[in-house]
Design brief:
Blueprint: H1 5-12, H2 23-38, H3 44-62, H4 66-76, H5 82-95
């Protein structure tokens, strides 16, 4: 998998602050985090950084509404299989019980 600059920022560079990212870059970074997560390519530190991006995006673009963010992700990155949909449901039920991943 080839990573782009926004994803590398989310994965490895602590100086990249989600709160300072322009909204289009924040959206791109989150989608790349989502793609990497679906591919099983996120390590613990990357999950934590992507979680920060998720929270910032949820607040700034979706008014804190996780369901609206999930709907946007589904439009951007359709889930290809029933198993992937099941995975999303499991994530959604976990995220509804906590503020972060």
């Amino acid at each position: 998998m080839r990573f782009t600059v926004p994803l590398l920022c989310a994965l490895a560079a602590p100086f990249c602050q989600a709160a300072q990212m322009p909204l289009p870059e924040l959206k791109t970074t989150y989608l790349e985090c989502e793609r990497a997560a679906r591919a099983g390519a996120l390590e613990t530190a990357a999950v934590m950084n992507c979680s920060t991006v998720y929270e910032e995006l949820k607040q700034r673009a979706f008014g804190g509404d996780a369901e609206a963010l999930f709907a946007w992700v589904r439009d951007q990155l359709p889930l290809p299989t029933p198993a992937a949909r099941s995975s999303e449901r499991a994530f959604r039920s976990r995220s509804s019980t906590s503020a972060t991943w």
